[in-house]
Amino acid sequence: MDRQLATTLTAAVNPERLARTALALIAIPSPTRSAGAVADELARLLAADGFAVERPVADWPEAPAVVTRLHSGQPGRTLQFDGHLDTVHLPFVPPKLEGGVLYGSGASDMKGGVAAFVEALRVLRDTGALSAGQVLLTTHDHHEGPWGDRRQLKALIRDGYVGDGVLLPEYLATPLPVAGRGQAIFAVRLTRPGEPVHEVLQAPGTPQVLLAGAELALRLRALDIELKVHQHPYAGADSCFVGHLASGEIYNQVPVECMLKGTRRWIEAGTVEAVRAEFAAVVAEVAAQHGVPWQLDFSVSGDAFVVAAEDPLVRAFQAAHQAVSGAGLPLGGKPFMDDGNTFAALAGIPALTHGPAATGAHTLDERVSLEELVRVARVYALCALAYCNP
Ligand SMILES: [Zn+2]
Fold first, then answer.
1. Neighbouring residues of 222: CB distance < 8 A, sequence distance ≥ 6
2. Which of 84, 187, 211, 384 has its CA 20 to 30 A from that of 254?
């Protein structure tokens, strides 16, 4: 990385301007599926700053996405900055900047990070540092579950709003996650025909859904132990977890239904169908032994992914991090699922999650220091510089 350029870009990040942008975004409530007003505000801010803004509907007319591009005019790679503008459904907390810390709904997750993207775009443009390739900023609604189903991001990818690599500003400052598990949320429903009945009045041979459910929970626990052989040094291991088991109304009634809910996580990308089939086979076997009909909802949240350590995006990121903080980040796994998993699965591009060391995501006490937002804005700008110039 050109040291002179790196110094120029680093110095150009303007903390006051960055804070103003973050505060303006946090000030507009945007629970998932209702991010239209904040998207309009971001579009207005970018346009006022001289950026050409596109508003692709991307399957969500309620809040068309906000897209802008910074072209160098020369061939090179495209680095995508992608962020979500929606927040979890909690009571709105208005923005506040106090003692160098930003508070409010979305401060950590992830309006602070989106504001850092915008600041990175500004300094890349104003310094004229980007000499090859382009930066593509995409922001959207429909991220946070269970309210959103990621349809808008999927539509953006389908419609070609995709770079050669993508950065996501979720609240993970270290390590650099180069692998992550896929996840499915399962719900198994075991039933028996007939009505609830007093235990002493039941017909001989009445199927026992509660016992079937209990046995299934034990079988899934055994599966979890077997799955531990599938290990990845960063992502961890395959797993199967039951977090909810419910059956029966009162102590002396034979129930008609048993529900089990939990998660199945896996490390190998592209194995969703095999994972689903293996899980369904266990359910079918236990249900058959107990003579109970079963239904399975196996809802895939996202696939596993791996980014090669030698991928140009990892190299560019590490060079940027080194220039800003004196060292690259240790490589590691991503503990959660985010839109990076969707980019990896649907767009086939490397996706790196790196954001401010913020706290309180998904709570009423989101906070992020302005210093951290400045740091990540510098990393984003320098990463673009290193990545776009092949
Ligand atoms: Zn988020």
1. none
2. 187
